[in-house]
Amino acid sequence: MLIGASNKGRKLNLIYKIDIIKNMININIPTLSLNISNNINFINDLSNNKLINIRYKKYLWKIHIGAIYIYNTLTKKKEIFEPIEYPFVRIYHCGITPYDYSHIGHLRAEVSIDIIRRILRFFGYIDIAISNFTDIDDKIINRANELATKDWQSIPRNNIRYHLEQIKRLNNLPFYINPLVTEHINEISEFVKDLIDKGYAYTGKYSIYFDVDKYKDYGKLSGNKKEYWDQETNVLEDKKNPYDFALWKFKKDGEPYWKTIIGEGRPGWHIECSTMSSRYLGKQFDIHSGAQDLIFPHHENEIAQSEARFNINPWVKYWIHVGLLKIKGEKMSKSLKNIIPAKDFIDKYGPEIVRFYFASYHYREPIDVNEDSIEQAKKNYNYIESTIKIIVSNIGNLERTFYLDQKNIEIFNNMLKYEKEFIDNLRDDFNIGKATVTLLELTKYINRYVINSNIFTLYYKAYEFYKNASIIYGLWENIFCNNKDNNINQIINLLIDIRKDLRDNRLYNLSDKIRNRLKELGIELLDSGDKTIYKFS
Question: Binding residues for ATP, per the UniProt record (predicted)?
């Protein structure tokens, strides 16, 4: 798009499209101005008009920002994202069962969902995201037995603290709440009782079970047919069918339990997430996320018990599942002794590199973690960071642009093309992996055509792009807001001015001394005509 040439036509096209909609829905709409920013509130208000058919609401919103497409595990296809209550996006992410230290697979899932939340915010949505901790479970009880400790609560408590510390190091946005199962026992027991009352659950000797045959849509998420599998094989004699699953496990000697309206015992695995998500996000919400290995049986069972209780279909509109990791081509497992604790991984490579490494892949893509791929991510990260520092450090010294020649107009327009490609990748199922490829291509272009141009317009476009990218990636943000760095930049710019005066007065020995001393300190001066910029080497 040429600067100025097509903006008016684009805005007129917007008005033309809305005029068509005005005629279709026959409502009184004021005339729009050519200033798109003045029309944004109008479009939002119009989209909320209850008289407008939903298909026209969708069309109006696409005029404003374009559609986001999400791959929905439930439907096995990409769909236009339409939250239940715009602009809010309610998200439930399946958190960890803290029977042990979290590992790099957990880091990957957390970073992926964090970036999705940031992308949604970039497009103007307001996410309300929560993530649970399963602090009572068979695995926790087994670990307490292995450690021969009666203080089973200390196991999840310590591992939750460990997990949150590592996530904080990665600069993840906090969840609004991290509900614990043990804090929601009453709500869980009420959920189970409601299923019993509605005929979806029955009581056995050892547990209360969900009657899968009573729920006709079972298997719609995973595609698994109930006839070919079973759950909890150790209690088959206690169940109507091998594929029924436990909602509530009755008290056993030596195990923690709670007194409730459905008896003494503790929750099954799946009921907790249905209970806590509906408590905080409502009977229906927008996005449920988790690792791909949770699709079955966990998420399949969540859907069954939730849709049975609330009589709503679908319970969740969009299901997002994060790809799994391999270590040097092999699946992570205790038997192979290749599980990498989260802290060890971050300590070795640094939080920024770990975050950027996971951001180099689409969230559904499996990752084979190996030294070569991490080293490449490190090189890419450092290359982008050094370019951002050059732009941020030098933009304040450039004079405003009063005229652009045709060559620089072309450079500017090419930067816009890269930016559009970057944004289009984000819209395509949050494809941060492809967006990262575009980010690197644009960075190469900036180094080739912008860095030595000393043209404010080009620097400013690069500055604005990188600033937005820093928010989306959760990286490089300190470069834009670090006051200490700003003071250093001012000192360096002062030395550059002094050096220029020395050169103008032919005091080359002194000017060279400043350049050489700065280089020893890791600051390289780049002379281009009568202008000098710098970068950190």
Answer: 334
Q: Is 82 annotated to bind ligand?
A: no
How many Cβ atoms are within 10 Å of 197's Cβ, its own excluded? 10
103 is in an annotated binding site: no
**In the beta sheet, which residues pair with residue 203?**
208
| Cβ-contact 294, 94 below 8 angstroms | yes
Residue 445: DSSP 8-state: H
Comparison of pLDDT for 430 and 519, the residue scoring more: 430
Compute the distance between CA of residue 324 and CA of residue 326 in angstroms, rounded to an integer.
7
pLDDT tens-place string over residues 222-265: 998 877 676 776 678 899 999 999 999 999 999 999 999 999 99
Which pTM value belongs to this model? Answer: 0.81
Strand-pairing partners, residue 527, are 532
Element (H, E) at 209: strand 207-210
Annotated ligand binding at 270? The verdict is: no
**Residue-level pLDDT at 27:** 38
Give SS3 for 389. helix
Residue 89 token pair: 């996006």
Query: Among the listed ranges 362-371, 477-486, 499-508, 519-528, which one has the minimum average pLDDT value?
Result: 477-486
Q: What HEC string does 270-304 produce?
A: CHHHHHHHHHHHCCCEEEEEEEHHHHHHHHHHHHH
Query: Residue 299 CB: number of other CB atoms within 10 A?
Result: 25
Q: Which residues pair with 523 in a beta bridge?
A: 536
Q: Do β-strands 126-131 and 207-210 pair in parallel, antiparallel, or remain unpaired?
A: unpaired
The DSSP symbol for 150 reads: S
302 is in an annotated binding site: yes
Q: Per residue in 56-87, pLDDT tens? A: 444 444 444 568 999 999 999 999 999 999 99
Cβ proximity of 499 and 513 under 8 Å? no
Residue 110 in 3-state DSSP? helix
- Are β-strands 245-250 and 258-260 bridged in parallel, bridged antiparallel, or unpaired? unpaired
